[in-house]
């Protein structure tokens, strides 16, 4: 699959399901207190580092995580590949900044961000593209800046076909924390924290959830 194929498939999928997705999961963070604890801990690390750069919420979707970080006092903006997701985020949080674009090629100078968040947004990136993705995250972070990476744990992707009755499909890739840690290390990151929680049956989760926090060396 070429970059164009991968990006087009992902963009088309989320443009198609955006409104249904936002309606179904609008209270998702409130139902995940352990996930919120990770987000809050990440925000604390960014604030304690004392840098004055922004935090980029890459693959922000409807903007929920972006808004959470803003409520915690971080200067944050969201970016998403899907025009429809960005429209929902702007409509829901008009006081915040949201942009459309690809996290594989960020329109940002080197070393300008205090934090990068990829909250379940790398799960559609082909495995052979992850080194380039993590290199891009490292590039835009200031020395000492932090990265938060969330994903589902597993070895086989979940294929979602015709969600909400729409004629689209997409693979949701699951990965091993140790594999992702190795890739982050190879890109130049230093691991700060690794958290894995079990799947929550009440939330209809089918795989454990992993959260990695890594730091760009000063």
From TrEMBL:
Family annotation (CDD domains): AdoMet_MTases
What does the record list as GO biological process? methylation
Record's Pfam families? Methyltransf_25 (PF13649)
Question: In the record, what terms sit under GO molecular function?
Answer: methyltransferase activity
Q: Which domain of life is it from?
A: Bacteria
Give the UniProt keywords, A-Z. Answer: Methyltransferase, Transferase
Q: Where is the Methyltransferase domain?
A: 55-145
Task: Extract the InterPro entries matched here.
Answer: Methyltransf_25, Methyltransf_Superfamily, SAM-dependent_MTases_sf
**PANTHER family registered for this protein in UniProt:** METHYLTRANSFERASE (PTHR42912), METHYLTRANSFERASE TYPE 11 DOMAIN-CONTAINING PROTEIN (PTHR42912:SF95)
Q: What is this protein called?
A: Methyltransferase domain-containing protein
């Amino acid at each position: 699959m070429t970059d164009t194929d991968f990006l087009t498939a992902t963009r088309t999928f989320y443009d198609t399901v955006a409104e249904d997705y936002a309606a179904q999961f609008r209270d998702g963070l409130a139902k995940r207190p352990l996930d919120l604890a990770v987000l809050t801990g990440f925000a604390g690390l960014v604030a304690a580092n004392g840098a004055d750069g922004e935090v980029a919420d890459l693959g922000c979707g409807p903007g929920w995580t972006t808004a959470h970080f803003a409520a915690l006092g971080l200067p944050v903006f969201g970016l998403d590949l899907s025009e429809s997701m960005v429209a929902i985020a702007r409509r829901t949080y008009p006081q915040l900044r949201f942009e459309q674009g690809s996290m594989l090629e960020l329109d940002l100078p080197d070393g300008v961000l205090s934090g990068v968040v990829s909250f379940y947004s790398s799960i559609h990136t082909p495995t052979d593209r992850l080194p380039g993705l993590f290199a891009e995250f490292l590039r835009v972070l200031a020395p000492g800046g932090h990265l938060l990476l969330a994903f589902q744990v597993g070895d086989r992707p979940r294929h979602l076909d015709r969600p909400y009755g729409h004629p689209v499909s997409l693979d949701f890739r699951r990965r091993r924390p140790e594999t992702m840690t190795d890739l982050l290390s190879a890109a130049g990151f230093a691991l700060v924290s690794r958290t894995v929680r079990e799947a929550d049956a009440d939330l209809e989760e089918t795989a454990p959830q992993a959260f990695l926090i890594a730091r760009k060396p000063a």
